[in-house]
Design a protein that fits this description.
- The structure is a single chain.
- By secondary structure, this protein is α/β, with parallel strands linked by helices.
- It has two domains: about 5-135 and about 145-250, 2-enoyl-CoA Hydratase, Chain A, domain 1; about 275-435 and about 475-510, 2-enoyl-CoA Hydratase, Chain A, domain 1.
- About 35% of the residues lie in helices and about 20% in strands.
- The chain has 22 helices and 19 strands.
- The strands form four sheets. Strands 12, 13, 14, 15, 16, 17, 18 and 19 form an eight-stranded mixed sheet that branches.
- Strand 16 (about 400-410), helix 16 (about 410-415) and strand 17 (about 425-430) form a beta-alpha-beta unit.
- Helix 13 packs parallel to helix 15 (about 385-395) and helix 17 packs across helix 19.
- It is elongated, with a radius of gyration of 27 Å.
Length: about 525
């Protein structure tokens, strides 16, 4: 029959592709506690929806008579699929084939400048990168006959995508070089405890360059990448949890910047008023309380999805829903240095605000911030520059913003939560207080001579503080309409939900790419 031989050859080529790097290399991958890229894709996407692209790509082996004897597949698997019924592009390195290092092809299947990135760009659908590879290798210069000038395999398309569609990076092995760069050039990144590492260059390069003898885990494991550097957003206990986090994150995202995020049926009454909110803030102003519990009481039940929970711990950034609508929540955490803004908190807030602004997600600030972090360590790390960038980014946001002052809102850190453009809403609980700086420190500076001249300096300082605290009452500001409303804490959910519903028409006017680039890495 016509073309039987060719159809049979196609079947064999597909079999060799599905065999990946062979039984031995697949076994090594499993022994290391890792899934193969094909197993990862199967567990991530809706059953039966993966349409692979370039399955026949690879290096063929031929006999002396020209008969095909085998194919080593290209070390990248990619294609179209659906997640929760919505189209996505998904791809990742196949570590079982040459450790996932880049193959010489007429055109890349994936990675920076690859076909999968072009597909996400042209079709305006999310891109999921399953990262497990070391990128380039020094042997490529020998193969080419010359070294490649940096930028030939550029990140231009990766950068474009940051302002167009949701990009997710799941680090599922050791990532260095280009794959590590793509993990950073994403809107959300996650790695796996014990089996994932990410770094600019691995231990061998570090030892040769600096003489430092470190393991992959010490150099780029979650303790460094998630907790200390904030390089990667979240950590998962295993690969299944990692893929579940990817799916959950995408559930809050629109398909692209030309659409709004999807609304879902909340199943949670918008008029739910929680009595627990009335007493959640202690009367003692220095006592901490559980801001995460406060958030759970306000937003749709089970909808709060925290981003970067282990970095910049004085600030909580979360996606959530109100009456089924997606919102971005920025909340100070009084459990950590009273909620003061340090460098990590500022960087975290900037990235999250840019994310929400890019994808038309309105912002809710839950404010309890005494100001920027003070002291020698904070100043030497550049807290002022980082903090003022947070003010700058918040001021540039085009989405509606609702600011609710729960307790403290002081100084320039307070400004970063209160952008004044348009009809941005400023609300407060009766427990709120604000100003240029807290009364305690301000009195000590402004009345220094009067306090020093008093018979009892401590008593005089306390007297002045009490006098000025009267003027710091939120009700005094409300009388001058300096704040739009003071609300009973129990009314918070229905109050905010009403405004989120009303602002949907405004959000439609923001759809499309922003004049600025979008989310910066």
């Amino acid at each position: 029959m016509a073309w039987d031989d060719e159809i049979e050859q196609l079947r064999r080529r597909r079999e060799w592709a599905e065999a990946q790097g062979g039984e031995y290399n697949v076994g090594r991958q499993h022994k290391a506690g890792r899934l193969t890229v094909r197993e990862r894709i199967d567990r991530l996407v809706d059953t039966g929806t993966f349409q692979e692209i370039g399955k026949t790509t690879g290096a063929g082996a031929y006999s002396e008579t020209g008969e095909l004897t085998g194919v080593t597949p290209a070390p990248y698997v990619a294609g179209l699929a659906k997640i929760d019924g919505r189209p996505v592009v998904v791809g990742g390195e196949d570590f079982t084939v040459r450790g996932g290092t880049t193959a010489r092809l007429d055109r890349r299947k994936g990675g920076q400048g690859g076909f999968s990135e072009d597909l996400a760009h042209e079709y305006r659908i999310p891109l999921v990168n399953l990262i497990d590879g070391a990128g380039g290798t020094v042997t490529s210069a020998k193969n080419r006959g010359h070294a490649v000038f940096p930028g030939v395999d550029n990140f231009d398309r990766s950068v474009d995508l940051m302002g167009e569609v949701p990009v997710v990076g799941a680090v599922l092995g050791s990532a260095a070089g280009g794959p590590a760069g793509r993990a950073i050039l994403s809107h959300f990144s996650v790695m796996v405890k014990d089996t994932s590492q990410v770094f600019a260059a691995g231990p061998a390069v570090v030892k040769r360059s600096l003489g430092q003898d470190v393991t992959k885990e010490e150099l780029g494991g979650p303790k460094v990448a998630v907790d200390m550097g904030g390089t990667i957003d979240n950590i998962a206990a295993d690969e299944d949890e990692c893929l579940a986090l990817v799916k959950r994150y995408l559930s809050y995202m629109p398909q692209n910047v030309w659409e709004l995020p999807p609304r879902v049926e909340a199943g949670d009454p918008t008029d739910r008023c929680e009595d627990a909110l009335k007493d959640i803030v202690p009367e003692e102003r220095r006592r901490p309380y559980d801001m995460r519990r406060l958030m759970e009481l306000i937003f749709d039940q089970g909808s709060v999805f925290e981003i970067q929970p282990r970095f910049g711990k004085g600030l909580i950034t979360s996606l959530a829903r109100l009456d089924g609508y997606v919102v971005g929540v920025v909340a100070n955490n009084p459990m950590v240095y009273g909620g003061a803004m340090d460098v990590g908190e500022a960087l975290k807030q900037c990235h999250f605000v840019e994310l929400c602004d890019t994808f038309h997600i309105p912002l809710v600030f839950l404010v309890d911030v005494p100001g920027f972090m003070v002291g020698l360590q904070a100043e030497s790390r550049g807290v002022l520059r980082a903090g003022m960038r947070a003010v700058f980014v918040a001021s540039q946001a085009t989405v509606p913003v609702m600011t609710l002052v729960v307790r403290k809102c002081y100084g320039m850190a307070g400004m970063a939560a209160c952008p004044q453009r348009g009809a941005n809403l400023k609300l407060a609980w009766p427990s709120a207080e604000w100003g240029s700086l807290p009364v305690e420190g301000g009195v000590a500076v402004a009345f220094r001579r009067e306090i020093e001249a008093a018979d009892d300096p401590k008593a005089k300082e306390a007297e002045l503080e009490e006098e000025l605290r009267f003027y710091a009452s939120p009700f005094r500001t409300a009388e001058a309409f300096g704040v739009e409303d003071i609300i009973d804490p129990r009314e918070t959910r229905p109050y905010l939900a009403r405004y989120v519903e009303a602002m949907q028409a405004k959000l439609w006017t923001t759809v499309g790419p922003k004049e600025k680039l979008g989310v910066r890495p």
